[in-house]
Task: structure prediction
Amino acid sequence: MSAAAPVPPPGLAAGASFELSASSPQRCEARGALTFATARRARKQGLLALRNAGRELSIDCGAISQADSAGLAVLLDWLGEAKRAGCSLRLQHLPQNLLALARISTVEELLQRGV
Result:
């Protein structure tokens, strides 16, 4: 009998990962897949970064390897939370596939402008 392959935790597909790492309290880098499989974790990381940032946060999204509508929802949620908290949030270097999703959803300008 062979050993079964490890099963990823609920909501996390095999091989899917997302990290939001801070280079300073006001600057972070998003890295990995921003998809349905990672959305819950990504949302929590972003909200924590917003709390730690104070009044201003910039997130470099250039290392997001793939994104879907759940990932777009996470970014919109971060923007909404920033606005409610009176924090400035800028999303930089958004990948083209994410911008295409935003364009279809008519929220591209909001993503590029930030709050």
In short: Helices lie at 39-53, 69-85, 96-104, 108-113.
